[in-house]
Structure formats: structure tokens, C-alpha cells
User: Fold this.
Amino acid sequence: MDHFLYRNGILHAEDVAIPEIAAQVGTPFYVYSAATLTRHYRLFTEALSPMPHLVCFAIKSLSNIAVLKLLGDLGAGMDVVSGGEYLRAKAAGVPGDRIVFSGVGKTRDEMRLALEGGIRQFNLESEPEMRALSEVATALGVVAPVTVRVNPDVDAKTHAKIATGKSENKFGIPIARAREVYAEIARLPGLRVVGIDVHIGSQLTELAPFEAAFAKVRELTLALRGDGHDIRRLDLGGGLGIPYTRSNEAPPLPTDYGAMIKRTLGDLGCEIEIEPGRLISGNSGVLVAGVIYVKNGEGRDFLILDAAMNDLVRPSMYDAHHDIVPVAEAAPGSPTQAFDVVGPVCETGDTFAKARDLPLVAAGDLVAFRSAGAYGAVMASEYNSRPLVPEVLVRGDQFAVIRARPSFDEMLKRDSIPEWL
Ligand code: LLP
Assistant:
């Protein structure tokens, strides 16, 4: 459930009419609902209670500092994968002991940044990385809390570009080698084992792959404890999928996911960490765009929007589906038309949807892409020198721009012409 509903025929974000925001901010823009973000975060904390747990929001899905502050103030931890994300979490006021550092290529600078600023744990992904972290920590005179991300060789049954838990993927250490690797960690002076980490992919719409992976983590926990390691935390990653269409999708709910975790791992006495991104942020945001032209082509009609692949890349990159709805609700039974929905960018890949049945819309109308809160604004670029898309946060009847659209002047000023040219 989200808080983007029609009221008197106009799409609202909570109590704010979308056209009101458009009039002030211009299109395109992302708008997020604080109530939806809060609700989705709480679904996870409720699903995991009474087990000791920490829900670490995967910042990569939506990294605006205002959103991080909202979630951080509710008690959320953060999952970061770069120095930039770490600094965003800190800027949002999240204490270091609630930040976990994931990612396959952490640099020494990033390790230093997190060790100096405070960190809950590093999720290590390779042996060279683990030796580097031990050296960095030792040089700083500290000991880094670590888990090892194990690759359980499980098929997540999701899009190939976002599956991470198969042995051919670049992520983690093969689970079969884990005991050897933990033994080496125990010998390294700058590291202290605190648990195990696993993440098998994103937009998973079944629980079975998670359960298969968690069963392997369970076995490993017992084996590593037998070897004398202090396994007190299990970081189970993110990946729970969301419905992208209103009609036929019914991915498992956080309550089902939580119950499955209790069933497979609940008796181990471990603190459970999870790293959900999409389920918290995805349906908490929409991308609002204006129709520039309706172009009647040969055998097809194009809806040309002022949003493009640089603002929302998921359809071009993953063939992802986003529901597109008019901001002014169509009357029941009114006619529809099949449109190819496109942006102004100069490549055919700049297509949001093909032959999509939509109510009749005209130039100047507003449309909204649903389920765009996750991996939307964060993946935006300035391709075709289109200014980076702004973001707005709504709470109740209030709204605020939480990232302004840069002016052309600001955009051009970032380049410089060398003196010798
Ligand atoms: N933890 C780790 C280590 C991850 O790599 C990811 C996502 C997450 C947590 C969060 O997964 P989530 O709960 O959001 O599924 N850009 C793609 C998705 C890439 C996901 C990458 N890793 C998309 O637009 O579908």
C-alpha cells in the first residue's frame, strides 16, 4: 500500500495535489511519501520482532539525505557501498554503529573514512580486501568488525543484471571456502569476526531462493562456531521484490519473509540484520512528467514526455515495467489509446513503454510513473545535458524540495577549459 491516491480526480501524494508541486517545481520531478517510507520500514521491524534485529536501509536505492534522516530517526540502520554513501548516512545523523559497509571493491580510503567515522561492520567480499582492511585498521590502531559475504550459489530467479548469488557472479566468497577464510581472518591483527553476510539478488518474487541461501548460512554458522568463531550477527542482505503492476503480481510480504527467517535462523541466538532497499523506497515514490507532444506516427502513436531515460533508466536498462498513470484521473469507461511512451533523448532506447494502453492525454498534461522511488533518482544522469532531476518529499499536507534542479549555469560551470587550450 502507498499514499499516492486520486482525490476528486487528481493524483495526490498524501494530502498534496501533484499539480500543485508541478506548478512550483516544474517537471520532471520525483516525489516521495514520508508516510509510505515509514510504513514500509515498520513492516520489516514488525516482521522481525521479537528477534534482535537491525533493518539497514540500502542507500543505493534512494540516497537523498532527507529520506535517510527520516528513516534514521525511526531507528533504521544503513547499508552503504561507497564513501559517498557513508558520508550521506553520517550527514543524515545516522551513528556509525548503525552503518554496515558492503560492496565488492572498497578502497583503502573508504575503509579509513569508515573506521575513523565509526562503523558497525564491514561485509568483506574477497581475500585481498580482507588483508587490505586489516592493514588499514592496524595502521590506525583499531580493530575492524567484519563479516564475510558468502556466495551460496543459489539461483535468485531474477533479472540477470541484478542476480548476485550464483557462483559465476562477482560477489562474495564461495561458501565452500568460508571456513578457510574465517580461519585466516582470525589470524589477521586488524580484524574481528562478528558474523556472516549473504545477499543473493534484487527484486526476488519468491521466498524459496532466500530460504535455500539462509539454510546454508545456518549450517555455516554452526560450523564456524564449532571452529571457535564468534558468530553473533547474520546479515541477510536485501532483495525482497515489490509489485510493479497493480494487477497480477503478489510477491511475498515482509511478514512472510520475517516468519521464514524466524523458522530457519531464529534459534541461533543471532542478531538479524537485513538490507532492504526497493521494498522500502520503491512504492514510496513516483516520477512526474509532463507531456510535450502527442505524435501520430505510422501505425503507432508516441507520447513524448519531458522525462527521459536519463531521469529513469530502468525501462531501457532492464526492460523494467513501470505503471504510467495520468495525474488527472480518467473517467471510468473513457476511451484508451495505445501509446509508445518516450522521452526526448536522441536514442531509441529512450523508450519507457511500447503500445501501452493509456487514457487519452494531450500536450501539457501530467503523468506519473509509479514505483519509481527505488533506483530512480539515484541512477539519473545529465545525459543529453538535461539537468539532474529534482526530488520532493511530502509529509501530510507539507512538501519540500529536497534536491533542487540545477540551473543551466550551475551545470555548465562544473566544466572548465584548460588554460593551454
Ligand atoms: N544489499 C546489497 C549488498 C545489494 O547489493 C543490494 C542491491 C541491496 C542490499 C538492496 O537490494 P533491494 O532490497 O533493493 O533489492 N538497479 C537495479 C537494482 C540493483 C540492486 C543492487 N543491489 C534495479 O533498478 O532494479
About this structure: The mean pLDDT is 96. The first helix runs from residue 18 to 25.
